[in-house]
C-alpha cells in the first residue's frame, strides 16, 4: 500500500533559527520591515505546530470572515438542531459490505456505488467515521461523500457496530477508546487498494476514536493524513457540560438512540451476567447511564469516570505523527471549547487547529451553501486532504516524512 509521510516544506531547523535571528537583527535596525501577511481572517482561531505548512494552501478559504447564517447561527442550540433536522440529505447510492472482525463482531462499510468502475485503483481513499449512533444516513456524512466524490476520491463510511443498521453479532458494541475495529477497517481497506493513499475524517465521537487511533499507532499508522471535526477531546469535561441546562435535551436524544440500537440486539445480552446492568441500559435516560450499565463494563473500566478519562483523545494528540487537521466551533455545546488540547496541538509539528466563532455541534451553517447545503467545513477538509495528496518528491512518488524525525 502506498504510504504518505510528511516532508516539511520549511527549511531545516538550523536555517529557521538563522532566519529568525536575521529577522530579529534586521527588525532592530529597520523597524519598518513589513509583517508577514495574515493567512486567515481574524474571526478564526488558527494555531498548531503544523500551521506553517498546512495554512498556506487553505488561505483562500480561511481569508474570508466566518459568517454564520442569519436567524440560524445566532444561537448554538438553534444551529445544532437546525442542521440536524433541516440540512438536506443528498441522494447517494451506496454499496454495503459487512466486515467480520477478529472477535467475531461485525461492522458495515458503505462504499459509493460505481466507484470501482469509475475510479482507477490508485485513487485516494477517504474513510469516514460518523459520530455517536451516527452512520452513512446522516446529512453531514452524505455531503462529505459528495464533496470527495466530486474530487475523484474513493469514499467509504465506517458504520460502527449497531450504527447505520450495521449488524451486531456479539454482545459488544463500541466505545470512545476501542480501536480494534478501526484498525481492522483501515487494514482491510489498505489491502483492498494497495496502490492508494488512505485518509480518514471523523466527527464528534468518531473524531475522538480517530485521534486515539492516530496516537496509539503513532509509528505504524498507514493513514496519510486525517481530519477531526467537533471532537469532544476531553470526555470528562464533555460529560460535565452534558448535564447542564439545554444540553440535557441532547443527552436524552442520544440516550434514546442508544436504547433503540440496544433493543434491536438485546437478546445477545440476555444471559451475560457479571457487572452488566441490563435493566439500566434498557431504560437509560442519559448517555452516562448507558455507559455505566454497558460500555464501561464491556471494555474493562472500573467506573464511568475512569472510562471517560482514559478514553479522552486529548491525551493522544502529542503522539500523532501524520498530518492532522482539527476543526472545532467555539460555541459547540457537546464538544466544549475548554476541552481542546491547545498546548499539545501547538507543540506537535504535525497538527493544526481551526476554531470557528460559531457552528454549534455538527452545524457550521455558513458559507456558500447555507443554510441547507453542505457545512462550511467541507471545502476546508478537502483542500487540506488534497494538499497532502498532491505533495510529491523529485522521483514522482508521494512522500511525507514525519516532522518529528526531521527535528530530532
Strand order of the largest sheet: 1-9-8-7-6-4-5-3-2
Terminal Cα separation, in Å? 27 Å
Helix segment count? 16
Compressed to H and E, one letter per element, the order equals HEHHHEEHEHEHEHEHHHHHEHEHH
Tell me the CATH architecture of the largest domain.
3-Layer(aba) Sandwich
Which runs of at least 5 residues are low in confidence (pLDDT < 50)? Answer: 3-36, 392-396
CATH class of the largest domain: Alpha Beta
Q: Given the helix and strand composition, which structural class is it?
A: alpha/beta
Portion of residues in helices? 25-40%
| Count of structural domains | 2
Beta-strand content: 5-15%
Radius of gyration: 22 Å
What is the chains' assembly state? single chain
What fold name goes in the CATH topology slot of the largest domain? Rossmann fold
Main beta-sheet strand count, sense and barrel state: 9 strands, mixed
Let me know the number of strands: 9
Spell out the CATH superfamily of the largest domain: Alpha/Beta hydrolase fold, catalytic domain
Task: Write down the overall geometry.
Answer: globular
What is the arithmetic mean of pLDDT? 90
Amino acid at each position: 500500500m502506498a504510504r504518505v509521510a510528511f516532508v516539511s516544506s520549511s527549511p531545516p531547523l538550523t536555517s529557521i533559527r538563522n532566519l529568525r535571528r536575521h529577522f530579529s537583527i534586521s527588525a532592530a535596525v529597520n523597524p519598518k520591515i513589513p509583517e508577514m501577511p495574515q493567512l486567515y481572517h481574524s474571526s478564526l482561531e488558527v494555531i498548531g505546530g503544523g500551521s506553517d505548512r498546512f495554512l498556506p494552501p487553505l488561505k483562500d478559504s480561511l481569508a474570508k470572515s466566518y459568517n454564520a447564517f442569519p436567524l440560524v447561527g445566532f444561537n448554538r442550540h438553534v444551529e445544532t438542531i437546525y442542521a440536524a433536522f433541516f440540512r438536506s440529505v443528498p441522494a447517494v447510492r451506496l454499496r454495503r459490505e459487512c466486515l467480520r472482525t477478529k472477535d467475531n463482531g461485525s461492522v458495515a462499510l458503505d462504499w459509493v456505488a460505481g466507484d470501482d468502475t469509475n475510479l482507477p485503483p490508485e485513487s485516494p481513499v477517504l474513510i469516514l467515521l460518523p459520530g455517536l449512533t451516527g452512520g452513512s444516513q446522516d446529512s453531514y456524512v452524505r455531503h462529505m461523500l459528495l464533496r470527495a466524490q466530486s474530487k475523484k476520491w474513493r469514499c467509504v463510511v465506517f458504520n460502527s457496530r449497531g450504527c447505520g443498521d450495521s449488524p451486531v453479532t456479539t454482545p459488544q458494541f463500541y466505545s470512545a477508546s476501542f480501536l480494534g475495529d478501526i484498525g481492522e477497517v483501515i487494514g482491510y481497506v489498505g489491502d483492498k487498494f494497495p496502490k492508494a493513499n488512505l485518509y480518514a475524517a471523523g466527527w464528534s465521537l468518531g473524531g475522538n476514536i480517530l485521534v486515539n487511533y492516530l496516537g496509539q499507532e503513532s509509528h505504524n499508522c498507514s493513514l496519510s493524513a486525517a481530519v477531526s471535526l467537533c471532537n469532544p477531546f476531553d470526555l470528562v469535561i464533555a460529560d460535565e457540560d452534558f448535564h447542564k441546562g439545554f444540553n440535557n435535551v441532547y443527552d436524552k436524544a442520544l440516550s434514546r438512540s442508544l436504547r433503540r440500537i440496544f433493543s434491536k440486539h438485546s437478546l445477545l445480552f440476555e444471559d451475560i451476567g457479571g457487572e452488566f446492568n441490563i435493566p439500566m441500559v434498557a431504560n437509560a435516560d442519559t448517555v452516562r447511564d448507558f455507559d455505566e450499565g454497558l460500555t464501561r463494563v464491556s471494555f474493562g473500566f472500573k467506573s464511568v469516570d475512569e472510562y471517560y478519562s482514559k478514553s479522552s483523545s486529548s491525551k493522544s494528540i502529542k503522539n500523532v505523527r501524520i498530518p492532522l487537521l482539527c476543526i472545532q466551533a467555539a460555541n459547540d455545546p457537546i464538544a466544549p471549547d475548554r476541552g481542546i488540547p491547545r498546548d499539545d496541538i501547538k507543540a506537535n509539528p504535525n497538527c493544526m487547529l481551526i476554531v470557528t466563532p460559531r457552528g454549534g455541534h455538527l452545524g457550521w451553517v455558513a458559507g456558500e451553501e447555507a443554510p441547507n447545503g453542505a457545512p462550511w467545513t467541507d471545502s476546508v477538509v478537502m483542500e487540506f486532504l488534497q494538499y497532502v495528496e498532491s505533495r510529491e518528491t523529485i522521483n514522482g512518488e508521494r512522500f511525507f516524512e514525519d516532522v518529528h524525525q526531521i527535528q530530532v
